[in-house]
Amino acid sequence: MLQLPSAELHLHIEGTLEPELIFELAERNGIALPYADLADLRDRYEFTDLQSFLDLYYSNMDVLRTEADFADITRAYLRRAAAAGVRHAEIMMDPQAHLVRGVALETCVNGVASALAGSEAEFGVSTGLIAAFLRDRPAGEALQVLEELLAMDAPIIGIGLDSAEVGHPPSGFVAVYERARAAGLRRIAHAGEEGPPEYVWEALDLLGVERIDHGIRCLEDDALVERLAAEQVPLTVCPLSNVRLRAVDTLKDHPLPAMLARGLNVCVNSDDPAYFGGYVDDNFGQLRETFGLSADELATLAANSVRSAFVAQQRREALL
Ligand code: HPA
Ligand code: ZN
């Protein structure tokens, strides 16, 4: 583990649901889990690709039913993130994944937001909330949920795009991103995790995103690398996630050093830390061990996270 003062910009709150908490919430809500015990659940954290992870991720979040459940997972993440050195966190949540289970938008949004509201005082971590839309569901549904979030004046700073990437290109979500832009929201999207470089181009040119989540496959396209480097588009890279979802074979094969060498604005994030073997300090620690990153390189990664955060200049200076 390596604690560096940093901002975490790529984090799914539903992916912080630790196995122990899954059992605790199941008991609290009277839900029968399809696992015999903790060991049985833990045995299932072997993934072959993004979809194999998403199947378990969506299934486990069924234990989240009440506002208190959402507040509790959020507080648990913030406590752990603070211990990892995180001083600012921009947290994605997947409203549609809860709506389809019959959990009201107010329940999930207000639960997460209530924990975030106390975060600076309780943990010293400033926060922002990002509503991520599921790209493997209809864009019309995403637009409707965005309208509902705006109507309820949800405390979101931006929108994102996640879930199964291949076959669900950014081009399908132009209207959603146009509406978000008109509403003054920040815009990010997962692209180039399993999907091709073309999806990164589309996210930039058609959705107008300000950051790319993952983006590791950009290295297959020199013109794209030049564009991303010239514009210093932030790429929120998640090394342990890429290993566990088999986007790369081992951490040694991870393109992060190559991305830094090409002048890309890369930062380090945990994605779904309860599923991928560690929080941001674990990511930094394993990167240092694997690549022998220098103190300067580590400081660059941490500084990149702060300069890529959606915060006012005053908070940015306090974080640097
Ligand atoms: N990729 C895409 N969608 C996701 C992820 C991810 O790593 N985690 C949660 N939703
Ligand atoms: Zn992600």
Automatic annotation (TrEMBL):
Entry keyword Protease: no
Adenosine deaminase domain: residues covered: 5-320
Binding site for substrate: 272
Cofactor(s) essential for the protein: Zn(2+)
Residues of the site described as Important for catalytic activity: 214
GO molecular function, one term: hydrolase activity
The enzyme's E.C. designation: 3.5.4.2
Active site positions: 193 (proton donor)
Keywords from the named record: Hydrolase, Metal-binding, Nucleotide metabolism, Zinc
NCBIfam families from the UniProt entry: aden_deam, PRK09358.1-6
PANTHER family assigned: ADENINE DEAMINASE
Family membership: Belongs to the metallo-dependent hydrolases superfamily. Adenosine and AMP deaminases family. Adenine deaminase type 2 subfamily.
Function according to Swiss-Prot or TrEMBL: Catalyzes the hydrolytic deamination of adenine to hypoxanthine. Plays an important role in the purine salvage pathway and in nitrogen catabolism.
Name used for this protein in its record: Adenine deaminase
